[in-house]
């Protein structure tokens, strides 16, 4: 297959039928501010959309006329190909697991089941199977008539700029409170309902263009195929870890002894496979696989962002990533900042609909004394439970866990934002004579 083109090369094809040619991709991405160096994470010159139903969604410049559809609708880039190669050793282990488990039932199944399992991979790209995966595995739904009408306008512009047949992919809705979209299987592009409500058409087109970049680059189908063939090996590994955890958790000498013996057997088996049998080429990639795959996922995100910038959605994608960075830096905060306060209302934090409000004391009612700063305060039970804190999780651990998750998400959004600005800077430099 031909490799998809990325920033600088993703220029929309000229229109057929005598129309004027489309502007280069850089014309969509350039702005009055030069991107000679990465910009600080802060407010940009272009306006930020107003959250809520009052936002003006119709801000996407519509491109009329016919467009030339590319002969190759999708390909496979370096990130997708590397993902497949990294999971080959894990796939071989999965094949052995399937053969051993089926052979324990009957020797005939040891020959039939592994072959059937190998041939079952392409079935995940059947339209009916994809619909079942989207509906029951990812919790997606079909768009309502109003949502379909709006998505139709935005998707038409995204596919027109990319030169991709719009009927190649199906649009779905996810009930999630994130400004995001998802590419799944081989023909599914899903956008969250929260993004439909909060984002104007230009920024909605940016997230859809990002997901189209995943499909065009082959990231989606390569990841799904790799996950499918690695599933038996990962299930066997998790079963062994669960057994070890159960044995050591018994706190009985017999369980601890069995867990120690099993751990020594695993270490001895890995040592023999690596150094005695010379199968390091199988053991080392499996051990380093998670780190390599995480790096490839990040590279695929950068490629998809660059593809969206090449289609002219650079500034819109920058706004979306900045909103994600703000939301990740302050967990629970609205992505586009707090809602505006109407005139005359005091600037106090208002409860959201359905939130419990403690009753206010009436005049003369006894009030328990409040602890002074630094005084110990006994933990209060959380709603629906009698004990003061969740079992095995103190307030310090919960806060630390939340901070780590928020920091990781914030770092990812910042890295993508720097990459988008770098690609936009490169496009500006190419457009300067």
From TrEMBL:
Residues 340-350 have a biased composition (Pro residues). It holds the Pfam family Peptidase_M48. Binds 1 zinc ion per subunit. The keyword Nucleotidyltransferase does not apply. Keywords: Cell membrane, Hydrolase, Membrane, Metal-binding, Metalloprotease, Protease, Transmembrane, Transmembrane helix, Zinc. The chain crosses the membrane at residues 76-98, 104-125, 253-273, 279-296. Residues 146-312 form the Peptidase M48 domain. Its cofactor is Zn(2+). Belongs to the peptidase M48 family. This is Zn-dependent protease with chaperone function. It comes from Streptomyces griseoloalbus.
């Amino acid at each position: 297959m031909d490799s998809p083109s990325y920033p600088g090369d993703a220029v929309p094809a000229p229109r057929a039928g005598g129309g004027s040619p489309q502007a280069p991709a850089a014309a969509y991405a350039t702005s009055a501010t030069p991107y000679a160096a990465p910009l600080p994470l802060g407010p940009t010159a272009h306006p930020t959309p107003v959250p809520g139903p009052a936002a003006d969604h119709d801000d996407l410049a519509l491109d009329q006329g016919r467009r030339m559809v590319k002969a190759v609708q999708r390909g496979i880039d370096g990130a997708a190909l590397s993902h497949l190669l990294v999971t080959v050793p894990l796939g071989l282990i999965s094949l052995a697991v399937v053969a051993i488990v089926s052979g324990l039932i009957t020797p005939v199944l040891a020959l039939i089941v592994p072959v059937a399992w190998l041939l079952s991979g392409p079935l995940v790209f059947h339209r009916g199977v994809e619909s079942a995966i989207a509906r029951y595995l990812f919790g997606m739904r079909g768009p309502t008539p109003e949502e379909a009408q709006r998505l139709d306008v935005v998707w038409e512009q995204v596919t027109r700029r990319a030169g991709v047949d719009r009927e190649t992919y199906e649009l779905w809705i996810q009930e999630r409170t994130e400004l995001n979209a998802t590419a799944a299987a081989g023909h599914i592009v899903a956008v969250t309902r929260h993004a439909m409500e909060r984002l104007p058409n230009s920024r909605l087109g940016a997230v859809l263009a990002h997901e189209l970049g995943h499909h065009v680059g082959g990231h989606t189908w390569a990841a799904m195929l790799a996950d499918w063939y690695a599933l038996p090996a990962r299930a066997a590994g998790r079963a062994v870890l669960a057994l070890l955890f159960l044995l050591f958790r018994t706190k009985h000498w017999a369980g601890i002894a069995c867990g120690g013996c099993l751990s020594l057997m695993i270490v001895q088996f890995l040592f023999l496979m690596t150094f005695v049998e010379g199968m390091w080429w199988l053991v080392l990639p499996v051990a380093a696989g998670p780190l390599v795959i995480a790096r490839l996922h990040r590279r695929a995100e950068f490629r998809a962002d660059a593809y969206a910038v090449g289609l002219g959605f650079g500034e819109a994608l920058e706004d979306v990533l900045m909103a994600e960075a703000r939301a990740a830096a302050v967990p629970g905060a609205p992505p586009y900042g707090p809602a505006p306060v109407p005139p005359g209302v005091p600037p106090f934090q208002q409860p959201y609909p359905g939130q419990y409000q403690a009753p206010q004391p009436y005049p003369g009612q006894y009030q328990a004394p409040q602890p002074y700063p630094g005084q110990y305060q006994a933990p209060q039970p959380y709603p629906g439970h009698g004990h003061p804190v969740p079992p095995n999780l103190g307030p310090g651990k919960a806060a630390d866990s939340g901070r780590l998750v928020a920091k990781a998400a914030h770092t990812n959004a910042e890295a993508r934002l720097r990459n988008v600005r770098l690609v936009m800077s490169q496009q500006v430099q190419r457009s300067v004579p």
